[in-house]
Structures
1.
Amino acid sequence: MSLPWTEKYRPRRVSEVVGNEEAKKQFEEWIRGWERGSPTHKAALLVGPPGTGKTSLVLAYANETGYDVVEVNASDERSGERLKSIVGESVRQSTLGGTRRRMILLDEVDGIAGREASGGVATISSLLKSTKIPIIMVANDPWSQRLAPLREGALMIKFNKLRQREIVNHLKKILSAEKISLDEGVLEEIARRSEGDMRSAINDAQLLVSSRVEPEALLEIVGQRDRQKSSFTVLGEIFSSTSAAMGRNAVQGADMEIEDIMLWVYDNIFNQIHTPSALAEVLKLLADADLNYSRVKKFQRWELLRYVAPVLGAAPGIVKNLYGEKGARFEFPTHIRFMQQTREQRQNIQSGLAKISVKCGLSRVKAATEVLPFIRAMIRKGETGIIKYFSLTEEEVAAIIGPERSVAPQARPAAKAAPAAQKRVTRAQRPRGARRSL
Amino acid sequence: MKSGLALQETIPWIEKYRPRALAQIIDQEAVVNSLKTIVSTRSVPHMLFTGPPGVGKTATAHAFASDLFGERYVEDGHFMEINASDERGIDVIREKVKGFARTIPIGGVGFKILLLDEADQLTAEAQHAFRRVMEQFSATCRFILAANYSNRIIEPIQSRCAVFRFRPIELEHISKAVERIARGEGLQIAGSAVEALYKVTEGDLRKCINLLQAASTYSRKIDEALVYQVAGVVWAGEVRRLLEQAIAGKMEEVRNSLRTILYVNGASERDLISQIYRDIFYLSIPEKNKLELLSLLGEVDFRISQGANPEIQLMMFLAHLYSASKPGK
């Protein structure tokens, strides 16, 4: 076989990258931010199923606008160190001037989840803060819990599966460049089987052409790829389990970490089960599964894992069925959204707490529980002198008093004294569903 | 609030009225007397201060150092405070101790004092490592460890320390402290208000003073009702609302409130659990069900300390609170 078509026809320009127009636009806007010297985020995280053009987009952009791309495979154990040296080196080179622009492409970041994961993730996430050159991370599964530190502070750009029509049209272009023609129906079948994965469609088409067998025969041989079950499929199985065995199989057959299944299930029970007593039952069982799983982790007692899977996998379905709950659409874990939405507020509270803990000689945790509630009450009441004493910034004050407004009418004169605090209240981030007032 | 003061700093009263010398420490007579003797002889042992929060352990350590070294005990490098729960691991603590205890300042008493606050936050392994640090630097440094519970401090450390037990502060001492502040701040405070302060803060003077200051932003005239009102705003506010949402069966709201408390406000699970514990007694649910809830909360507390997921475990508890609040059960 000659050069693989996937390489030979890799897009050279951004306009040649098929589909995902929204993602392309987001990516270009982000990298232009870097070029202007004011990136909104230091890193971008491109996420989506295989063969949807994530890496192609990066390489096409680099080729078109003149970047050197340093590729680091994140699942390599030493990637953290390697990345460190590249980032350091790039900084030195850029200060010397004269070299081509560089960007770092960090592939398979969800691959670091195993083994030495935490160290690698920590190194990478600290580099994301300090880097002077753009870092692009690529992942298939953006929701893996262990990647949480990498998600923070990175611009997440989502890629979707390509449409069958987009794949067929692209295959036609390649075939015409190769001066070969294939039956439209065969192309459609290849595209359908690819399930939106351009890479696999191109590979199948090339195999079909080069092996010169009858298309029908080949399509039988090639067969369909085993697609990873999506998290939603796993959820569907878990919430329709009617037996312990079904639940066990659903969890064991899922290509997800137990933590992630736990998170997805826990977050979705609230839109699947509405009767409070049913929720109490299912949460009791999930909490037991969580307890057993914590023992697995803490004591490295892997043999205890078998007590986790059936309970985690079957409790939701069985209880849902018992109470005749109808359920609703599954959703991405709200926990992840909650953490993203409250990120700024959390950071501001932490920096405020750092100041309080220094001034009062308390630990941050103690400052949070022993001092912060009073400061919050005093500021809400219009006592601004305390803000000055702790040198709290406007943002810290807004985060500390939270979305609740100062309520008491006699606080009005003070409201004048605290224009900053008052103004920020309305702009403060409000976690989804948080209540508005006392 | 007086206008015109708007641009001035308001010093937290816990700082403003912090004791500057052993003689100003409230209550704790036995402890203070022994420490005064130690100051006069200048033969200072390693010490372990134990007792509930807000009874003056840290303040006493500072006052002791001030009596021993003079008012500039920190600036002149005689004294350093490390908080165990803020440091990342024993290695960081060891490095800090090393940097501090390497030299002896001129004009001192031949050694320095290092206060390790919240020492019971260190794991047993870390405490063993810290014990070695104590031995290594005992020629140039004396250690004061402060902890809520002495039984969470490993025996080898306890045996190397003089142990001072701080008692919860009694009402009459709390009211003396409150009256002194009221005089200083020009507050009018009712006798029943002092009792209310004492009751809701359970002899924790820090909380008591903080609450008094928060109440003073509502009115210069402080009565019993105001104390309870402000206490409600300050603490019970969030946790009580969480429990009420659970009793009303609004589980999605419960989840969001729980997340805000756990992840945004920076409080520890342990404090949330303690607050829930206190609130259970006041809930209007059948008494027998309270007992079951208390046992369940104990289970949740233990599970979380063993590494289980706090949100899932607490959510489980809160969902059971709903069932327990129904009399039919």
2.
Amino acid sequence: MKIIKKRFRSTTSLIAGLIACGAAAVATGPSAVDAATEAVAQESNGVVIRRLSQEQYETIIADVFGPGMKIGGRFEPVPREEGLLAVGAARVGLTTAGFEQYDAIARTIAAQVVDPTHRKVLIPCKPAAANGPDDACAKQFLASAGRLLYRRPLTDREINLQVKAANQGATALKDFYAGIESSLALMLVAPQFLYRQERMEADPDNAGQMRLNGYAKASRLSFLFWNTAPDPQLLSAAESGELHTAKGLTAQVERLMASPRMEAGVRAFFTDMLGFDKFGTLAKDGSIYPKFTTHVSEDAQEQTLRTITNLLLVNRGDYRDLFTTRKTFLTPLLASVYGVPLLQNKPNGYPESWHAQEYPAGDPRAGILTHISFVSLHSHPGRTSPTIRGKAMREMIMCQRVPDPPGNVNFTVVQDTTNPLYKTARERLTAHATEAMCTGCHKITDPLGLSLENFDSAGSYRTKENGAALDTSGTLNAATFKDAAGLGQAMHDSPAVSQCLVRRLSTFALGRQTAPTESDWVKALNDGFAADKYRLPDLMKRIATSPEFFRVKARPGA
Amino acid sequence: MSKVMNRRRVLRGMLGGAAVSVGVPLLDCFLNSNGTAMAGGAPLPLCFTSWFQGLGYAPGYWEPKTVGAGYEFGPQLRALTPMKDRINIFSGMKAYLDAHFAGAHGSGPQCILQGGVADNALPSLDQIVADAIGSKTRFRSLEVSCDGDQESLSRRSASAINPSEPSPLALYGRIFGPDFKDPNAADFTPDAHVMVRRSALSMVKEERDTLAGDLGASDRVRLDEYFTSLRELEKRLELELQKPEPLAACKVPAKGDQATPGLVIDDARANHRLFAGLLAHAFACGQTQVAAVKFSGSLSNLRKPGSQQTFHMYTHEESIDPKVGYQVNVEWFSNQCAESLLEFARALESIREGDQTLLDRSIVMYSTDGGYARTHSTDNIPMMTIGRASGRLKTGVHVSAPGDTAARVGLTVMQALGVPIGTWGAESNRTSKTITEVLA
């Protein structure tokens, strides 16, 4: 109960709801997940070991070996924890099947690197003889590629191992390049590459204290701003000790922020926060929503990400305006799903192109919650779900937790679309919520979700369901509104929304939830975010330049 | 021969005379001429499949009315009647939730497959079985999903959840692709590239201690998971370097088509048929002894094409038809699942090994998420096993054990497969009560 109360303290109506709905939750105490979280928090000394995401892996390979590398294979999924895959990545291990996949992908990449076309460009030396080992040339290539892949120079032990692997392979297969291929494939399945390991060192400025070493700091920065491994300049700054000085750190942060690559970092964060990984298995019923194709779901994610980066990065706007903005981007395909006229003066067969779109004042399609990427992702395959949408807003956007439905419930009336008495979701939910054990939770979710009922399961605009006019009024705390635009304004005005962004971004950056001992830092970030007029890049800079971002401590007994 | 018998005797002794056996590692043995056993007389190894579907059956409509042998299925499982003499059915068993907040659909599978609802770190029983019998095959275990995603109920720990393969074509490539060595091929040349890979991987193994450095306890566990997986691959490569023993029943299947991945039930069933065939051939060819099949997720979103409703939505929303006493559309989906389960058993049965079939040396353990999807009940969960495990299980029996933990079935199955385990499960689901009615 303590935990739930704390999470929900920002909203009084929520607590009232929980007293009814939380009967089961309160009686049963904290879940196993909470216990695990606490165990991790207690154990954590600030060092976090994260497995590379698929996107990070692919970006690093493209950075190191060129964008033409083909990466076949399926990556093992990562669980979502604390609302983020970035936290799951810090807790996930590796299964046999997952390792097998990494091995197959590694061999594919290594084979391309040494093929006759690529070796000329990528391998900086020629072996003394092509049909046998050449340790000097192997070392030259493996040390330089290794530095970028491991995000730090290889230790002597590591480079010796790689050279030995290359030597053995070249000898057995009578081919220098086959040896390089084998050694590189090994490097690509090494934990030093697949996991972002962070190493500490004694802090010369604080006797007896530890600090992250320069390379670990460089990785934290690079993955936060660019979602990839540090570039050579950042590695140099790590090597020279520059990152340990306030001036050097700020200079690198500003350099990272000035680069167009920062967009990749912002996109990675919002892709994670908004749960876009679920698009991978989203299916809409083709007979009900013939326009909803795979292409639409790809364009839908892109629409939201473009809207976000345009507002937050290009225009350096207020984060909260994401929920009210009437500016977005559309392809003709998306426009046809939304039912918005869009003229494309391009010849037949010309690829889909993006068009800036601004809806007129008063248009219901305001803010990213009305995007297909939200309303379709949080629906049933053939029907909307105000409950699922409301839960998603509470959990994803406001960092609040809505409990699962309890056992022994009669759900029968909820969405019986054929019952003539209940034509709309609101009527069905109202009937269902007369059950005392249901009403508490539905008070938390439904008043938000019902305001999006103008958007069907695929995102098309509608004013009626089963012939009955929709009532899209809703409430959030003291705010009342009549439609999606009003909901967006209420979200904009809710302190929980901007606080949640701070919480998610700091969690994303650290790879773990902040500890209770860091509450002063979180408060300072929240105050700073408000002082900065809720500009995301400024918040990222505040996080990256604060000592708390890098703070670690020695393990007891270590 | 004598070595194998000794090992079995040792294990039997360890368990106080309980009827258990170890799956004899394939490569230690030779086949006899008619394919019913290894040449030395040892039986062909045991195979295990954990077969899961979401949402189960309706109470009162699946349970047999009589206990013991000679039962008749209730109407919702009637599709399985042709296999009845190979099936054991268990009724009345439940998942104890103790004081834990019940995940609406997740707690039942946790109890049945992991033995407890509290701790997500408990390994699933297919992995316990794989540790005991699966280490001498190319794949320790294979996990598949018929409804399009990579989700899985198979895990070694909370941080090592085995992803399911959603594509039959990809599974075909994994098992019968270029790395496959036909056990019945006349000639065998070890692949020099495989030798190089194996020796490279064995070098990394020695780096564990250096890498462990100052890691905390949970990160050490993750690193160990990494090295366990690395060793598994190394072992697989070692096997690829040895000439496999001939297996008379092994036939490389045709590559087949890709079924449409997704949640339409016809597609899920088509995928399932392809997976069933591939897994049967993988067992027959000695590629694995353990599989986990997810016919649908615990919260099954399978649906009929063109329908707004999913299986899950029907279970909660459809009215009970007063004429028949149950939810008619839910029943339709349930029947589809039962028919697919029958198809899985038939795929194993279709592989003849002398006068026996692959099913005879298998156990397929059926599980689902609860006893009544309509209300999220975890009482009276339908439980079944199919196959005789080379005579370790008696079959054709209905056991009614009202109020007992459903973990009893998993315990019994593990014992029948030769896992040296006497007690299994956590909290109220902890049990040492083997279901002796079905152990031979």
